[in-house]
Design goal:
The protein has a domain of 100 residues: Rossmann fold, CATH 3.40.50. The termini are far apart. The relative contact order is 0.12. The chain has a five-stranded parallel beta sheet with strand order 3-2-1-4-5, sandwiched between helices. Helices cover 53% and strands 12% of the residues. The longest helix has 55 residues. It is built from five helices and five strands. With 170 residues, the chain is α/β, with parallel strands linked by helices.
């Protein structure tokens, strides 16, 4: 009888300990996901602040593209930043040859659009708008399109009228 009580107590302690360990692991996993999302939003917040500051200092895309002999561009990522960038570039007279997006639907149905599985038509520059995923996206673009010039949108924002990169990369 004493052995039976000890066995049940031992089983209960092991079960309780296992449950606690599982919950700690699960909470850590949830918190890690939330921390990644928080870091992403903070990165975008800093980027948007830089973008507004850049515009307040009367910088513009046309000067950047003219100075760098860029006539046609493509935009990767038609989320919120991609849409705003597209409007800004069009308002500055920059020709958007096409957009690239991995989403199932493109908001701008009139746009020529591709995904990363496609061989992309030649353009002077591809601008990547998901700045937190730039390296991965750049590598995926270059897998099928070895000669493309690819830049993160935050690098353009770091440019100023003297052509010196101010290091606005986030």
């Amino acid at each position: 009888m004493m052995k039976d009580i000890l066995r049940r107590l031992f089983t209960a302690v092991i079960g309780f300990t296992g449950g606690v360990i599982f919950m700690i692991y699960r909470c850590g996993y949830i918190l890690e996901g939330k921390q990644k999302k928080l870091n992403k939003y903070f990165t975008y917040y800093k980027f948007l602040d830089s973008w507004l500051s850049w515009k307040e200092n009367n910088n513009n895309y046309a000067e950047y593209f003219n100075e760098n002999s860029i006539e046609t561009v493509a935009i990767y990522g038609m989320g919120r930043i991609g849409k705003r960038l597209k409007n800004e570039l069009e308002n500055a007279g920059i020709k958007i040859a096409y957009v690239i997006d991995e989403g199932e639907t493109i908001i701008y149905s009139k746009e020529i659009h591709y995904n990363l599985r496609d061989i992309l038509p030649a353009v002077d520059l591809i601008i990547v708008t998901p700045i937190d995923e730039f390296e991965e996206i750049r590598n995926r673009i270059l897998d099928n399109n070895k000669t493309m010039n690819v830049i993160s949108v935050d690098k353009i924002i770091g440019w100023n009228k003297s052509g010196i990169e101010k290091g606005a990369a986030i």
